[in-house]
Write a structure and sequence with these properties.
Helix content of chain B: 25-40%
Radius of gyration of chain A: 43 Å
Shape of chain A: elongated
Oligomer: heterodimer
Number of strands of chain B: 6
Strand order of the largest sheet of chain A: 1-2
Number of domains of chain B: 1
Shape of chain B: elongated
Helix content of chain A: over 70%
Largest sheet of chain B: 6 strands, antiparallel
Number of helices of chain B: 5
Chain lengths: ~575, ~170
C-alpha cells in the first residue's frame, strides 16, 4: 500500500514538474516571439530608412549632374552671346565717348564723324549706329545727312529710335521736337504687342522726364490702352500673375512642427494648406511695404535722370539676343534651384515673361511691378507699376485668401489605427476616429474604451478557469477515495488527503502563474493605452497651437487688404522735375 | 558713369539750326494704334457685382432668418431678387451665413429659388453648391456668402464690401 502511495506521489510530482516546465517554456517562447516581432519591426524600419536614404542619394546625385550640365551650358551660352552680339557692346561703349564729345566739344567733328561712320559699317542691322551718325550730323549742322541717318535708324528699330530722340531732344531742351517724337512713338504702338523698350516710357513717366505736357500725353494714351485691354480674359490673366506672386510666399509647414497632429489627423493636408496660405500675408506685406516705402533719392538734375533712362534704352537686350537670354535664364534657374528641373522651369517661366519680344501693355505693367530687373525698370517705376496693378493685386489677394479660408476643415478628427504605436501594431488595434471638437476628456474615455473592448478577449484568455480545472481531479480523487474507502476506511481518508492536497497544490500553482501573466499583460496594455492617450492629448494641444498660429496669420489679411487699397493714393507720389523750367 | 553723361556747351548748341525731328520719317507707322472698344458686358457685370451691398440687403437677409409667414417670405425674397437685378446685375441662388440660433446650429442657408431656410449643425452635410461656402460663411470677416448658379461665391463683409471668388476655386 505504502509502495503504491509512494509511486503515485512520485508520478504526481513528476507531472507537476512537467507542467511547471511546460509553463516556463511557454513563457520563454512568448518572450522570444515578442523579441522577434520587435526585431522584425526594427528591421523593417531600418530597411525603410535605408531605402529612403538611398533614394535621396540617387536624387542628390542626379541633381548634381543636372547642375553641372547647366553650368557648362551657361558658359557656352555666354560665349555665344559674346561672339554673336559682342560687337554691339562696342557701339554702346563708343556711344559714351561720342556723346561726351558731342556735349563738351573736346573732339573734332571730323573724328566724331569718322568713328560714327566706321561703326555704321561695322555693325550692320544695329539701330544705334545710324542714330549716332544722325547725332553727329546734327552736331555738324548737316541736316541732309541727319535726316537720312534718322530714317535708317527708324527703319531698323522704330520704337527705340523714336524713344532715343524723344529723350535726347528733351535732354537738350527741344521740348516741341521731343513731344513730336513721343507722339510718333506712341502712335506707332499696338498696346497688345509692345516692345520691351516700352518700359522706358514708364520709367520716364516715373521720374517726370517728359515734363507736364509729355506726361499728360502719355497718361491719356495709357488710360485709353488700359480701357481697351481691360476685358475679363486680360483681367484674369493679370490676376493669375499676381496670384502666382502671392502664392510664391507660401512656405511649406513641416510635419515636425505639429508631429502628433500630422501623424493622427486625416485633415492634416488641409490644415497645412490653410496655415501656409494664411502665413503668406506677412511676407507679402513686408515685401511690398519695403518696396513702396523705399523712396529712391531723385537725381539732382534732369540730365542725370535722362542719362540713366538712355542707358537702359541702349543697353537693353536686342530682340535677336532674346532666345539665348531665355535659355540662359532657364539654366541659371536650374543652378539656383540646385538641380530641381520642375522648380527651375517654373522660376524661369515667371522670369522670362519679360524676355518675350512683345508684351501687351497690361503685362508690361505687371512685369514692371513683379520683375523690374527683368524688364529693366527702376524701383521708382516699379512702385508706380504696383500702384497701377492695384485692382489685380487686390483681386489676387481676395482669391488666395478666400481659397485657403474655404479649405479650412469644419471639423478636425484624430485617427488611431493599428500603426500608430508598437502596442497598436502588436494587438492589431482596429481604427478609431474621434472629432477633436468633442473635447479631450470625452475622446480619452472613448479611446480607452476602444482599447478595452478590443483587448478584453485577450485578457479573458489569460485567466485561469479554476472551476473547469477542478472538476476532473475532483472526480478522480472521489473515485480513488471510494475505492480506497472500500479497502480500508483509514486508507480511504489518507488517499483523499494526499491526492486532494496534491491536486490543490498543482491547481493553485497554475492559477497563480496565470494571474501573474494576466497582471503583466494588463500592465503592458495600460502602457499602450497611455501611449495612445498621450498622443491624443498632444494632437489636441497641437491643434490649439495651430489655431493660435492660424488666427494670428489670418488676422494679417485685413492689413494686406488695407495696404493694397492704399496703393491707389501712392501712384504718382514723387514726380521729380515737373515744376522746373527746362534747363537748356 | 552713365552712357549719355556729361554737361552741354553753349557753343555746340548754338551751332544747331534744326532739331532732329520725327517729321523726317516718311514711313508710315508699323502698326495702328489703339482701337477703342465698346464696353464689354462681362467687365461691366464684374463691376456691378463688386458694388458694396446696401443696408437693405443685410436687413432682408437677417429678417429671412426669422420666423415669418410664407407669403411675407415670398414677398421679401422677390424684393431681394429685384434688388440684385437692379443693383448688382445677377441674382444669387441663395446665401449661406452664420446661424444665430446657437448650438447645435452653426450656419444656415437661405435658398432664394426654393424659398426655404435650413439650419445646419457641424455634422450636417450642406447641399452643393452651398457646401463650398461653408468655411467662408463661418469666418468672422464675412457677414454672409452669396452663392451663384455658376458656382461663383461672393463673400460680403460687414461694411458691405464684396470679395468675388471665381468658380471652382
Amino acid at each position: 500500500m505504502a509502495e503504491i502511495d509512494h509511486t503515485l506521489r512520485r508520478q504526481v510530482a513528476q507531472v507537476e514538474n512537467l507542467v511547471v516546465q511546460v509553463g516556463r517554456e511557454l513563457q520563454g517562447v512568448g518572450a522570444e516571439v515578442n523579441a522577434i516581432s520587435t526585431t522584425q519591426q526594427q528591421t523593417q524600419s531600418d530597411l525603410a530608412k535605408l531605402s529612403a536614404d538611398f533614394f535621396a542619394f540617387v536624387q542628390a546625385s542626379e541633381r548634381r549632374d543636372i547642375v553641372q550640365r547647366s553650368e557648362t551650358r551657361i558658359g557656352v551660352l555666354q560665349d555665344q552671346l559674346e561672339h554673336e552680339f559682342g560687337h554691339y557692346k562696342v557701339v554702346r561703349r563708343t556711344s559714351v565717348g561720342l556723346l561726351q564729345a558731342f556735349d563738351i566739344g573736346l573732339v573734332t567733328e571730323d573724328v566724331v564723324r569718322n568713328v560714327s561712320e566706321e561703326l555704321m559699317i561695322q555693325t550692320p542691322r544695329y539701330w544705334l549706329a545710324p542714330a549716332l551718325v544722325a547725332l553727329t550730323a546734327w552736331a555738324g549742322d548737316d541736316r541732309e545727312l541727319a535726316t537720312r541717318a534718322v530714317a535708317e535708324a527708324y527703319r531698323r528699330s522704330p520704337s527705340k529710335t523714336a524713344l532715343l530722340f524723344t529723350l535726347i531732344l528733351r535732354r537738350q531742351g527741344r521740348i516741341d521736337s521731343s513731344a513730336r517724337w513721343l507722339r510718333t512713338y506712341l502712335g506707332a504702338q499696338d498696346p497688345r504687342a509692345l516692345g520691351r523698350d516700352f518700359a522706358v516710357i514708364l520709367e520716364s513717366v516715373a521720374v517726370g522726364a517728359f515734363g507736364p505736357g509729355g506726361r499728360t500725353t502719355v497718361e491719356e494714351v495709357l488710360g485709353q490702352w488700359t480701357e481697351a485691354l481691360s476685358d475679363p480674359a486680360a483681367h484674369d490673366e493679370q490676376v493669375a500673375r499676381w496670384r502666382n506672386e502671392i502664392e510664391s510666399h507660401r512656405f511649406p509647414i513641416a510635419g515636425g512642427v505639429f508631429p502628433a497632429l500630422a501623424a493622427t489627423s486625416p485633415e492634416w493636408p488641409a490644415l497645412v494648406k490653410t496655415l501656409a496660405g494664411a502665413e503668406a500675408h506677412e511676407p507679402v506685406l513686408e515685401k511690398y511695404r519695403a518696396i513702396m516705402g523705399d523712396a529712391p533719392a531723385p537725381h539732382d538734375r534732369i540730365e542725370d535722370a535722362l542719362d540713366d533712362i538712355l542707358d537702359r534704352l541702349v543697353a537693353e537686350y536686342d530682340n535677336e539676343e532674346l532666345p539665348i537670354q531665355r535659355d540662359l535664364a532657364y539654366h541659371n534657374a536650374v543652378v539656383e534651384r540646385d538641380g530641381d528641373v520642375d522648380g527651375a522651369r517654373e522660376l524661369a517661366e515667371n522670369r522670362t515673361a519679360a524676355l518675350e519680344e512683345t508684351l501687351d501693355y497690361l503685362t508690361i505693367q505687371t512685369v514692371s511691378a513683379l520683375a523690374p530687373e527683368q524688364i529693366g525698370v527702376s524701383r521708382a517705376t516699379q512702385r508706380i507699376a504696383i500702384a497701377s496693378c492695384r485692382p489685380w493685386f487686390a483681386q489676387a489677394h481676395v482669391e488666395t485668401t478666400g481659397e485657403y479660408r474655404s479649405s479650412l476643415p469644419s471639423d478636425v478628427h484624430v485617427r488611431f489605427g493599428g500603426d500608430h504605436s508598437t502596442g497598436a501594431t502588436a494587438f492589431q488595434l482596429p481604427e478609431w476616429t474621434g472629432s477633436l471638437s468633442e473635447g479631450v476628456p470625452s475622446l480619452e474615455r472613448s479611446l480607452v474604451q476602444h482599447w478595452d473592448q478590443h483587448t478584453a478577449n485577450y485578457l479573458q484568455s489569460l485567466a485561469y478557469p479554476v472551476k473547469q480545472k477542478v472538476i476532473v481531479p475532483a472526480i478522480i480523487t472521489g473515485i480513488a477515495f471510494l475505492i480506497s474507502l472500500a479497502i480500508n476506511p483509514l486508507f480511504g481518508f489518507f488517499v483523499l488527503v494526499v491526492m486532494g492536497g496534491i491536486w490543490a497544490l498543482v491547481i493553485w500553482n497554475r492559477y497563480k502563474t496565470a494571474e501573474r501573466n494576466r497582471a503583466q499583460a494588463e500592465r503592458v496594455l495600460a502602457e499602450y493605452k497611455q501611449e495612445s492617450v498621450v498622443k491624443l492629448r498632444e494632437a489636441a494641444a497641437q491643434l490649439t497651437d495651430w489655431g493660435s498660429r492660424y488666427k494670428a496669420a489670418d488676422g494679417r489679411a485685413d492689413e494686406v487688404r488695407q495696404f493694397i487699397d492704399g496703393l491707389a493714393q501712392s501712384g504718382h507720389a514723387a514726380i521729380t522735375y515737373e515744376r522746373r523750367a527746362p534747363i537748356l | 558713369m552713365t552712357l549719355f553723361g556729361g554737361g552741354s556747351s553753349e557753343r555746340q548748341r548754338s551751332k544747331r539750326s534744326f532739331a532732329i525731328d520725327s517729321s523726317a520719317i516718311t514711313e508710315a507707322p508699323a502698326s495702328a494704334g489703339v482701337t477703342s472698344r465698346a464696353p464689354i458686358s462681362a467687365a461691366m457685370q464684374r463691376t456691378l457685382m463688386q458694388k458694396p451691398r446696401h443696408a437693405g440687403i443685410f436687413d432682408a437677409i437677417h429678417r429671412l432668418d426669422t420666423q415669418m409667414d410664407a407669403s411675407a417670405r415670398q414677398n421679401l425674397i422677390a424684393w431681394v431678387q429685384d434688388q440684385y437685378v437692379a443693383e448688382y446685375g445677377d441674382i444669387p441662388i441663395g446665401f449661406l451665413a452664420k446661424c444665430f440660433l446657437g448650438p447645435p446650429y452653426i450656419d444656415h442657408r437661405l435658398d432664394l429659388v426654393r424659398s426655404i431656410v435650413e439650419h445646419f449643425t457641424p455634422s450636417d452635410t450642406v447641399p452643393s453648391p452651398f457646401d463650398r461656402a461653408r468655411s467662408l460663411a463661418r469666418h468672422s470677416a464675412y457677414e454672409f456668402v452669396e452663392v451663384y448658379s455658376s458656382g461663383r461665391l461672393i463673400a460680403v463683409r460687414a461694411d458691405g464690401m464684396t470679395e468675388i471668388l471665381p468658380e471652382g476655386k
